[in-house]
Request: fold
Amino acid sequence: MEKLQQKIIEEGVALSDTVLKVDKFLNHQIDPQLMHEIGKEFVKRFENKKITKIVTLESSGIAPAVMAGLILDVPVVFARKKKSLTLKDGLITSTVYSYTKQETNEISVAEKFLSKDDHVLIIDDFLANGQAALALIDIVEKTNAEVTGIGIVIEKAFQDGGDILRNKGYQIESLARIKSLGNKSIEFVSEKEY
Ligand code: 5GP
Reply:
């Protein structure tokens, strides 16, 4: 997605050769116009698929997920990273291992928000090693709902997650695929290499 790549070039900061900071438009301050474009692009990429619900992970997946949900007119459910006072029972949980933080965290969704009749589009901000996406898939599949596909705003294609998920047969649509990060340069996978 050209506009997104342009935004990453203009406002993204490569903190190291593995971590990209995009707090000017996605991870802290949010660019609503860009999120709207992202929502439309997700809808286009999954246009022949049945989608009854979108599942994402708090907090940075919520903005792009809500835009897609608005266009598709389906509810958006975000998995919580912390247990809330009002969300204790009837939870479906899974664990996410973070390579960057080297810790395992539990994420959860209230089971009442997913059913076996749902066709779920999973959306997240980043795909790195695939652990967050795998945990979201696990939650959806524990309810016997179907994972229709996975929409990612930024995939770091030099990490394993994309291959792991594609090898499992899921349709993954990443709107920007980064080939390499480093020394203040951000290189994208060209469309031909997809
Ligand atoms: P994974 O589970 O695929 O290894 O990592 C995906 C999750 O880690 C995303 O939900 C995202 O929040 C975070 N993440 C991974 N890499 C980056 C990165 O380079 N920049 C930012 N801002 N978040 C990242």
